[in-house]
Amino acid sequence: MISVGKLKSVDFYRKIPRDLTEASLSGAGLSVLATLCMLFLFGMELSNYMAVNTSTSVIVDRSTDEEFLRIQLNISFPALSCEFASVDVSDVLGTNRLNITKTIRKFPIDPNLRSTGSEFFSGHSTRHIKHGDDINEDTGEGSVSLTSNNFDQYSNEYPILVVNFYAPWCFWSNKLRPSWEKAAKIIRERYDPEMDGRILIGKVDCTEQTGLCNRNHVQGYPSIRIFRKGSDIRDHLGHHDHESYYGDRDTESLVAMMENLVTPIKLESQTLALENKSGNVSDVKKPAPVTGGCRIEGFLRVKKVPGNLIISAHSTSHSFDPSLMNMSHVVTHLSFGKLMSARMLTDMKRLAPYIGASHGRLDGKAFITPRDAKENVTS
Questions:
Q1: 144-263, what's its fold?
Q2: Which residues form the catalytic set?
Q3: Strand locations in the chain (E)
Q4: Cα–Cα distance between 323 and 319 in angstroms, integer?
Q5: Helix, strand or coil for residue 154?
Q6: What is the pTM of this model?
Q7: Are 166 and 176 in contact (CB under 8 A)?
Q8: For the CA atoms of 363, 364, 369, 373, what is the dihedral angle to 10 degrees?
Q9: Cα–Cα distance between 64 and 304 in angstroms, integer?
Q10: pLDDT in tens, 187-226
Q11: Domain range annotation of the chain
């Protein structure tokens, strides 16, 4: 049997007795430094292990099917009017496409997402509008200031009521003001409201009459609306029916538009004008959306690079108050790529529990802004 002494004889790591060793100041310093270095390295490694990092990588699509990616969308905005709703796309390569209309359709809806009319066409709202007189010119007051207290009275009293819904801080409202007041004075001289009684030109300050502007679904400034006596009766969905003017805003154009409104009453009959059966209809007058909501549906073709899809209120001749805009929306459908066949959709549903749901994640999702006193919720 091997003894303990013989086993110790093969020890490669022999120890020197403590009594034969001597401590030195340099050795103590080196030991403290080594200990601090080890603690520092341990702390750094632990911090790096506990930290959460985000890494982003761009993978080039080398598929040979198509150069562009197709985006299908069906999104409802309960408080954004089709009059100003704009679909824009941009990408990192510098491509910017504003207010796409070729493959996008807009339908007016009510706050409950129910359709209230046929497809809305932007028409003249996207063209460049000419303004007339100097913005600093003092033309005096020619139009009547309307409030929530007298608006219904005037709209029922006069066969034609043309109203400028404006905001004092708005650049375009201030550009319109001189021409509007001049045109109102000319119309007042030609068709005295007291003697003639066929037309009245008014204005509404939306910063003071917020409720009145919301009731008429005014979202951009200035908005020129045409009210015909008797047509302000609420329909079955409980919304006002009105017309908007999208033409040039110089004095001559405004007077011509107002003359066209009065002429049918003078030449044919007041009833004819009220029913709007005259053939002399200006191409710059058209029905505005009767409700404040809009459903946007269609498709887009974008490049296969990082980019943005933006839906916002846009106009080349109107201003918007962001604090009053309510961009709540409900996503009915939003998908990227080719449309799947019914068989492929069925297969996807069967595989979803195993690979995770990755198709149509946003479908049916609602993104609602809470109501408060400052929101333009036109319900």
A1: Glutaredoxin (3.40.30)
A2: 170
A3: 68-77, 85-91, 96-97, 104-109, 144-145, 160-166, 199-205, 223-228, 243-245, 285-287, 293-303, 307-313, 329-336, 366-367
A4: 12
A5: helix
A6: 0.61
A7: yes
A8: 140
A9: 12
A10: 999 888 888 888 999 999 999 998 898 888 788 899 898 8
A11: 68-116+292-367, 144-263
